[in-house]
Amino acid sequence: ADDLPKPESTRVLTISNQKGGVGKTTTAVNLAAALARQGAKVLVIDLDPQGNASTALGVEHHAEISSVYDVIVGDVPLGEVVQRSPEFGELYCVPATIHLAGAEIELVSMVAREQRLRRALDLHLRELDDPYDYVFIDCPPSLGLLTINAFVAAREVLIPIQCEYYALEGLSQLLKNIKLIEKHLNPDLTVSTILLTMYDGRTNLANQVAQDVRDHFPNEVLKTLIPRSVRVSEAPSYGQSVVSYDLNSAGSLSYLEAAAEIARRGAPLTGR
Ligand code: ADP
Ligand code: MG
């Protein structure tokens, strides 16, 4: 495949949806791998105590490993906990370990508790000679302080939506929260991208939901849909993205195409 256009500066996207099981982690890992496969330098920050993104990218994240917890709660420089994914290309991961489960509570009493990830990431990005093209932050399924840290560290929000009946229900709450963050903590934050996931084109319901989301968010929704596919769900158990597990599967091809769309659309315009 031809290399994709590179962004002028690092694009930081947080993958957010307070619903669990909608494909956040799958999307973070596979978009990152798809972009790396097409020539980009990419970092995934695993901000979910479950560490599923770390597992899927094949990086170590047992309790003794330095992780995003040490960056956010301790003052360990982010660059010290970055690991290279064995996948391929320039693909890196800041792992999450079980310690992160306590971070929500520990953060409550900390100074600048909403800004900790942003500061650590900004410092890291400034010290790099060869900058990342993309940073993806994989959020836990809640709107706690970890997710707020992700919203403050990012410029863009990418919302994965599962094509099912309740999909739109939680969305207005999520958008309200993003507006609040934009107003009080991060004026640069924009919902740049919505990705329809686990799509099963055989059902009328999936088609209906997909159309509804497109009608509401014509500029944000990617043309590419991610189909429901067994290969996508199998890949993490091999410590792999679907792109390296089965390059020519429907799931892999759709993530490669979604990644290309994101690259071609470019960063959202600044200034308001
Ligand atoms: P979240 O991070 O939002 O909780 P995950 O990415 O972990 O969601 O996905 C939830 C489950 O759905 C996982 O078991 C994952 O393997 C599976 N899954 C995600 N996307 C797909 C897909 N396109 N096809 C089949 N299974 C999928
Ligand atoms: Mg997840």
UniProtKB/TrEMBL annotation:
<dbReference type="InterPro" id="IPR050678">
    <property type="entry name" value="DNA_Partitioning_ATPase"/>
</dbReference>
<comment type="function">
    <text>May play a role in septum formation.</text>
</comment>
<feature type="domain" description="AAA">
    <location>
        <begin position="11"/>
        <end position="190"/>
    </location>
</feature>
<dbReference type="Pfam" id="PF13614">
    <property type="entry name" value="AAA_31"/>
</dbReference>
<dbReference type="InterPro" id="IPR027417">
    <property type="entry name" value="P-loop_NTPase"/>
</dbReference>
<comment type="similarity">
    <text>Belongs to the ParA family.</text>
</comment>
<protein>
    <submittedName>
        <fullName>ParA family protein</fullName>
    </submittedName>
</protein>
<dbReference type="InterPro" id="IPR025669">
    <property type="entry name" value="AAA_dom"/>
</dbReference>
